[in-house]
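Sample pair:
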Amino acid sequence: MHWTDIGVNLTHDSFKDDRDAVIERARNAGVTQMIVTGADLASSAAAVRLARAHSPTLFATAGVHPHHAAGLEADHLPQLRSLLAQPEVVAAGECGLDYYRNFSPRAAQLRAFEWQLALALECGKPVFLHQRDAHADFIAVLRSHGTGQLKGVAHCFTGNAAELEAYLELGLAIGITGWFCDERRGRHLAPLVSKIPSQRLLLETDAPYLLPRDLRPQPPRRRNEPMYLPHIGAAVAKARAESVEDCAAHTSAHARALFGLPE
């Protein structure tokens, strides 16, 4: 089986001492393609360098997370445009809205989100989307850019049935993480994953975050890694009443189709 992790934060400092070993452990677990998430201009550039050094296993996104939106100015957009033009970059983002933390003012988040959606359309790249406690504004901004024009994924989906329906109506793919394996917070997702069409379902670890709570034994460092993606996939497959092999095959095939990854 071959798996694709569409969201892993491999530029995070927690990987600085064993990054190559983390990538190798993932490969040995069958995770043969991984997309490294960019969260600001610096980490996006680092993700490109990492993907370039580990081609064709790693790819990258380039964008500014809503937490860092206040730091994105109009004169930074040429730099972001240049990053999006790199062949290693397969999506714009992580971008979106986060009204849970509000680390950046909402006005700055909205402005940065609008800019990045426009750049994604200009560059012909799908978007890697973040939304937390901002569903109404998030949907409104996406719709303002034309239903059907934007392609992308609702990263780390943890929402309800109405949110899922809205995302599917917009043509978005749905990214499921180890949150699904959390018996406290993720129980509501089990009936929802069966409503996601096979060609829209994607899997991700969001490592080093969101370590699956049901993983046994728990790793001593409590750090998530892409090698745990098959564990998430097995839980999702069980909830969808499909084989693990089928889950690996269709989630990876859709990741390749959406992000233009090689076979």
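DSSP finds nine helices and eight strands in the chain.
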